[in-house]
């Protein structure tokens, strides 16, 4: 049974790995045996995380990646392939957010979020899949969000981008299944990261949030470990085009019981 979740000898790319969820995903894959390619816009921002993963006995290649630039995406994928000779797993995590009421969202806000979260996700997946096709094997994990299936005020561009990632995942799964590549969407719920720290500093908001989550707490880093390893491993061989929500149940639409 353990072999189903063993990633020893495999190579995983994790984008957006300088902080937050990207590092959670990278740690989980490294602990399962994978060597890592980690990316960020500034490669120097990866130094501490590189040392941490090397401390686990894994090989690590840090690379600069700006998902707004086609040439940066191609260069990253080609460098990863050249260095390790294979790419088995992609965790397509790089993303951003702009929190504003819908009436205040600017043209530039919209383009920033959609270009990063949706266009970037597609072209990173495309560049990596080109290397996977020749081996007839690959695991692509696009990172979505509970906003892939639910809408929240003040998050219009973000919800649109994450909903698009869910739909894109299904399309790519159909496109690349014949090449032995699975494509799935991992959709975390409310986890505290640098991107949303301001929300968690508000105790009243945290109480409100927890009241809507059936498991009565926000997500913790370990809550994502099993999900990302499952989608990256041989155990998910017949799973593709799916969105796996790791959200404590908030996507059920639960509210506080009155009886």
Task: Describe this protein with a few key phrases.
Rossmann fold, globular, about 260 residues, alpha/beta, 7 strands, single chain, 8 helices, seven-stranded parallel β-sheet
How would you briefly describe this protein structure?
With about 260 residues, the chain is α/β, with parallel strands linked by helices. The protein contains eight helices and seven strands. Strands 3-2-1-4-5-6-7 form a seven-stranded parallel beta sheet, sandwiched between helices.
String of helices and strands: EHEHEHEHEHEHHHE
What order do the strands of the largest sheet run in, or round the barrel if closed?
Answer: 3-2-1-4-5-6-7
Low-confidence stretches: none
CATH topology: Rossmann fold
Largest sheet: 7 strands, parallel
* CATH-level-4 superfamily name: NAD(P)-binding Rossmann-like Domain
Describe the structure.
- The longest helix is centred in the middle third of the chain and has 27 residues.
- The chain is an alpha/beta fold and 259 residues long.
- α5 links the parallel β5 and β6.
- It is built from 8 helices and 7 strands.
């Amino acid at each position: 049974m353990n072999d189903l979740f063993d990633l020893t000898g495999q190579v995983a790319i994790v984008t957006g790995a300088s902080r937050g969820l990207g590092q959670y995903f990278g740690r989980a894959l490294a602990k399962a045996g994978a060597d890592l390619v980690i990316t960020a816009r500034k490669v120097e921002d990866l130094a501490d995380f590189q040392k941490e993963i090397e401390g686990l006995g894994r090989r690590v290649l840090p690379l600069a990646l700006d998902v707004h630039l086609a040439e940066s995406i191609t260069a990253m994928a080609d460098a990863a392939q050249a260095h390790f000779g294979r790419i088995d797993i992609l965790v397509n995590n790089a993303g951003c957010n702009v929190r504003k009421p819908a009436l205040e969202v600017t043209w530039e806000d919209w383009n920033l979020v959609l270009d990063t979260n949706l266009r970037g996700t597609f072209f990173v997946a495309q560049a990596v899949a080109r290397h996977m096709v020749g081996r007839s094997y690959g695991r692509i994990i696009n990172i979505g969000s509970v906003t892939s299936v639910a809408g929240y005020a003040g998050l219009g561009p973000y919800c649109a981008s994450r909903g698009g990632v869910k739909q894109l995942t299904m399309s790519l799964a159909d496109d690349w299944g014949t090449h032995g590549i699975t494509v799935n969407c991992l959709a975390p719920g409310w986890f505290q990261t640098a991107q949303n720290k301001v929300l968690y500093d508000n105790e009243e908001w945290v109480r409100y949030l927890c009241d809507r989550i059936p498991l009565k707490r926000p997500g913790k880093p370990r809550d994502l470990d099993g999900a990302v390893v499952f989608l990256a491993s041989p155990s998910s061989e017949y799973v593709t085009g799916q969105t796996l929500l790791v959200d404590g149940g908030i996507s059920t639409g639960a509210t506080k019981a009155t009886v």
